[in-house]
Amino acid sequence: MAIRFFSDGISFQPEGKREISHWLKQIAHAEGKKIGSLCYIFVSDETILDINKKFLHHDYYTDIITFDNSIGDTISGEMYISIDTVNSNAKDYHTEFRNELLRVMVHGVLHLCGYKDKTAKEQNKMKAAETLHLDYWGFN
After folding, report:
1. CA distance 123 to 100
2. How many folded domains does the chain comprise?
3. Strand 74-82 relative to strand 34-43: parallel, antiparallel, unpaired?
4. How many other C-beta atoms are found inside a 10 Å radius of the C-beta of residue 126?
5. How far is residue 65's CA from residue 72's CA, in Å, rounded to a whole number?
6. CATH code, domain carrying 115
7. Residue 37 sits in which domain range?
8. Which of 3, 66, 72, 119 is the most buried (most CB within 10 A)?
9. Could you count the other beta carbons within 10 Å of the beta carbon of residue 96?
10. pTM of whole model > 0.90?
């Protein structure tokens, strides 16, 4: 069981990595899952755009792209997070950068737990789960 944090092309590491790792493990447990290996890779907007084009054939910026390597009830995956977009979204949503970063991080874990966000109904369910976990664990 490992949660690792990397940056690619930028200089960024989240504050409180041990606390965040514990929180993410608790979320997985609350969702009936356990963590195998999670890798958070922090990147720029340009890097996430390149990943989005190359792997998902989408030509737009996004805050997170999650690659799922889960098996059964053990969630594993790589999550690329654009720090540029997280920063922009924090300003747009009038929230602290750290709160927005944590929202995006839990969003990735929820994808690995089986949550989707393609339809309005799925988006509402995802947003409710994000808020629940942020509030319950005291991060909102």
Report:
1. 17
2. 1
3. parallel
4. 18
5. 21
6. 3.40.390.30
7. 2-136
8. 3
9. 11
10. yes
